[in-house]
Amino acid sequence: MKRILLILTSLAVLLSFAACGSETVEFNDAEISEFCDLMDACFGVGPGSAGSSLRSVSAAGSLLDWAEDHSDMLTEETLEELLGEWDGYDWDYEDLEESWNSVAGSIEEIVSDPTDESLLGLLDDSGYTLQHESYGEDLAELLITVIGNHYTIETE
Length: 156
Description:
globular
């Protein structure tokens, strides 16, 4: 009887360890809300609007900092899920695509050299300070690609 109980207990412990490895990563409500606010900031920063370069670089810096802070959770799938949460808004996708292209360009500038004086001047003028000394190119590429593909408009 003791042997059976020992085997069952051992099996239960092994199964509990196996379950830990298959956990899915989920963002909490506050993280989702913060992401949606960041995406809101990416809207309306396209060329031709007043202060667009300042808003673009600020939105890019904020989004990059958020992504770096959540890099252990951020994958193509989780980013798509977050975009699905934000999709509840009724945006003009053509304007959003133009705005995203501007933000994506700012993301590339920040990643290539976050210490560039002109970039730091724009960030300072926008009132935003980068929170990290450097940014991963893979993480930036993930943001640019997934968000860009999500809002690409097919033209005939």
